[in-house]
């Protein structure tokens, strides 16, 4: 199993649950811990412990992260998932990476949501999306629909 957290904030609870598990890969893309909530977790060198050492991957990104930066980190995250070889993927889908989100420091535009979905679909894994995060209320549904539509189109 792999869990991929794609929102602006670190997947601290997920990381904590699976910290010592070798059978669940945890990958989180998020704002850098120096500037975002949970300033003590989510560093790139936090990689799990015990049997789970090396099975956690954090991709902290700077304030103002653009699609080019996010996309490169997403590619690295998807490579980590692919190398792990899970039977299924859980995506913690927060859309607070959107430039219009009131508590985000990222700069992704609405047109990037389907691109993200297509990239996730390329893994060709049974996938469950768990909706979490995203506070630009008027744009929330469009951004979620963009990711899901891109995923569907990419399958």
Could you characterize the architecture of this molecule?
The chain has one domain: Arginase, Chain A (3-Layer(aba) Sandwich), CATH 3.40.800. The chain is built from four helices and five strands; from the N terminus they run E-H-E-E-H-E-H-E-H. It has helices at residues 12-18, 67-84, 112-121, 137-154; strands spanning 2-5, 25-31, 56-61, 89-93, 127-131. Strand 4, helix 3 and strand 5 form a beta-alpha-beta unit. Helix 2 packs parallel to helix 3 (112-121) and helix 3 (112-121) runs parallel beside helix 4 (137-154). The chain is globular, with a radius of gyration of 14 Å.
Helix fraction bin = 25-40%
Shape: globular
How much is the average pLDDT?
Answer: 95
CATH class: Alpha Beta
State the end-to-end distance: 19 Å
Strand content: 15-25%
CATH architecture: 3-Layer(aba) Sandwich
Instruction: Please give the domain count.
Output: 1
The CATH superfamily name is Histone deacetylase domain
Structural class: alpha/beta
SSE sequence, one letter per element: EHEEHEHEH
Q: Summarize the main sheet.
A: 5 strands, parallel
Count of extended strands: 5
Radius of gyration (Å): 14 Å
The number of helices is: 4
Which strand order do you get reading across the main beta sheet? Answer: 3-2-1-4-5
**Any low-confidence stretches, pLDDT <50, length ≥5?**
none
CATH fold annotation: Arginase, Chain A
């Amino acid at each position: 199993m792999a869990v991929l957290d794609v929102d602006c904030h670190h997947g601290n609870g997920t990381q904590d649950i699976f910290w010592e598990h070798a059978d669940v890969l945890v990958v989180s893309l998020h704002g850098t811990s120096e500037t975002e909530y949970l300033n003590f977790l989510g560093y790139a060198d936090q990689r799990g412990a015990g049997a789970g050492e090396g099975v956690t991957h954090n991709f902290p990104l700077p304030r103002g992260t653009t699609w080019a930066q996010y996309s490169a980190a997403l590619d690295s995250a998807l490579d980590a998932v692919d190398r792990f070889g899970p039977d299924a993927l859980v995506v913690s889908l927060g859309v607070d990476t959107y430039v219009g989100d009131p508590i985000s420091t990222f700069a992704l535009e609405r047109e990037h949501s389907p691109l993200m979905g297509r990239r996730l679909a390329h893994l060709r894994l049974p996938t469950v999306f768990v909706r979490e995060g995203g506070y630009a209320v008027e744009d929330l549904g469009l951004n979620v629909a963009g990711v899901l539509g891109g995923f569907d189109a990419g399958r």
